[in-house]
UniProtKB/TrEMBL annotation:
Keyword Ribosomal protein: no
InterPro entries: Sec62, Sec62_asco
Compositionally biased residues, Pro residues: 1-28
Keyword Transport: yes
The protein's name: Translocation protein SEC62
Lineage, highest ranks first: Eukaryota, Fungi, Dikarya, Ascomycota, Pezizomycotina
Keywords: Endoplasmic reticulum, Membrane, Protein transport, Translocation, Transmembrane, Transmembrane helix, Transport
Example GO biological process: post-translational protein targeting to membrane, translocation
Transmembrane segments: 268-288, 294-321
Localization per Swiss-Prot or TrEMBL: Endoplasmic reticulum membrane
Low complexity biased stretches: 29-38, 111-130
């Protein structure tokens, strides 16, 4: 029966140091047992370091043990371990039918490829990461996404890009379309469309467009950039845009379509234009009855054009006469030269002239109503439109006679309610025994569109 050996220090009567106590005090040999004074000094030093670290003594000792184990694991391999690894690599290279250097190079290439794949996956998962755009043919998934977005209502706006008219859309509407049930339905028919689960995947799907040069992020060109003057008033017209270097996908960013889609419509229009040109060129070869019909048609169009100019001159003379006889003047077909549709140009039949101050006030009220409707729509409420206001057909009131000399100068003329005559199909509204005539209305003017 083997006799149990006493612990170190038991024969000499000296206690052993606590585990994890660290190195012994200086001057002590590795095989020498510490004295009780040295053990107490080590314990006091451990207690002080544990107190500085905000831990108890057992917790500090456990941490020291863990650090020592980590240091042992990070040590260089022993020569025996190196020889074992070399033998294992040689055996695997022999199985693969390669030399050891060739096998090592293949392992390096595989490790590098795996690292690149991990980096690409991380870049694809983060919307802020940028991927360089490589020239080449568009990818099939990018073409599929472009076709789908072209078929959706993105509220496209026309802009000038490289001296050409292009369609521009906002990112938030494209993201909304990718999250719509229409995209899921299209994906069932065309599995090449990328899957969209959340915002990140939607942005990655949208980024397939710039990667394939099918759509690019753009911004408006400021012709006064760098000049020392204040902000100019917005001029109505088309945006001139430029490409941004960072192709990000934030909600307020704009993208311009470079993908035009199928060109069969343009080809059909070109063929039709070519046919019309050939028909005009070969007009002398037409049959006699066709040439006679074209002559009558041209004479009829010339007659209509002459009637139009005659009506324009007559309405101007009528306005000049009524401006002095019954101010503020009377217009026949007040919307004849306004920016409205063809049929709206002849509605209403007549109206009183409207001064500039009244036009500005009416436009201001219309803008306020549009703003209120937009805010109500954004809040999810419904605002009932004013049915009395109809484009190009509503009438306004004629200002009442100016106040008499007995009234004060600060008193403004009274405005009656809007009325119409039988010519416009509405019932007149009497006031004080008099029927007020209608005033010219320009409600059908196209206002300047506001930026979203």
């Amino acid at each position: 029966m083997a006799q149990q050996q006493p612990p170190p220090g038991a024969q000499s009567g000296r206690p052993s140091p606590p585990p994890g106590a660290g190195p012994f005090p200086p001057g002590m040999q590795p095989g020498q047992q510490p004295t009780p004074e040295q053990i107490r000094a080590v314990q006091a030093r451990i207690a002080a370091e544990a107190e500085k670290a905000g831990m108890t003594v057992p917790q500090f000792i456990e941490r020291q043990k863990a650090l020592a184990m980590q240091q042992q694991q990070g040590q260089q391999p022993s020569p025996e371990q190196v020889r074992q690894m070399q033998a294992q690599i040689a055996a695997e290279a022999e199985k693969a039918g390669l030399t050891v250097p060739q096998y090592v190079e293949r392992l390096k290439a595989q490790a590098m490829q795996q690292q690149q794949m991990r980096q690409q996956q991380q870049q694809g998962a983060q919307p802020g990461k940028q991927v360089p755009i490589a020239p080449g043919p568009p990818k099939p998934e990018g073409i599929a996404v472009a076709k789908f977005l072209r078929s959706q209502d993105l509220k496209l706006r026309t802009c000038i890009f490289n001296d050409q008219r292009k369609d521009m859309f906002k990112v938030k509407r494209a993201i909304r379309a990718l999250h719509s049930p229409a995209y899921e339905k299209a994906r069932k028919k065309n599995p090449i469309l990328p899957e969209v689960k959340d915002r990140v995947t939607a942005e990655n799907t949208l980024k397939t467009l710039p990667l394939s040069m099918l759509a690019l992020r753009v911004s408006k060109v400021d012709p006064h950039q760098g000049h020392n003057h204040g902000k100019k008033k917005r001029v109505k017209g088309l945006w001139t845009v430029k490409v941004e270097p960072q192709q990000e996908a934030r909600d307020d960013y704009y993208y311009v379509f470079l993908y035009e889609g199928p060109q069969w419509k343009n080809k059909l229009y070109a063929a039709g234009a070519l046919g019309v040109i050939l028909a005009v060129v070969f007009f002398p070869l037409w049959p006699y009855h066709l040439r006679l019909g074209v002559w009558y048609l041209s004479m009829g169009l010339l007659g209509l054009l002459g009637l139009f100019f005659a009506m324009a001159i007559f309405r101007l003379i009528l306005f000049l006469v009524t401006m002095f006889v019954t101010p503020p003047g009377f217009w026949l077909y007040p919307n004849l030269f306004e920016d409205v549709g063809f049929f709206d140009s002849f509605k209403p039949l007549w109206a009183w002239h409207e001064d500039e101050a009244a036009v500005k006030q009416r436009k201001k009220e219309e803008r306020q109503k549009k703003k209120a409707r937009r805010e109500a729509k954004a809040n999810g409420t419904f605002v009932k439109k004013d049915k009395s206001k109809q484009p190009a057909a509503a009438t306004t009131e004629k200002p009442a006679d100016p106040p008499s000399s007995s009234s004060s100068a600060s008193e403004e003329p009274e405005i009656s309610k809007p009325v119409t005559s039988s010519a416009t199909g509405a019932e007149p509204i009497p006031k004080d025994g008099n029927v007020q005539a209608q005033q010219r209305n320009l409600a059908a003017r196209v206002e300047e569109t506001e930026d979203e």
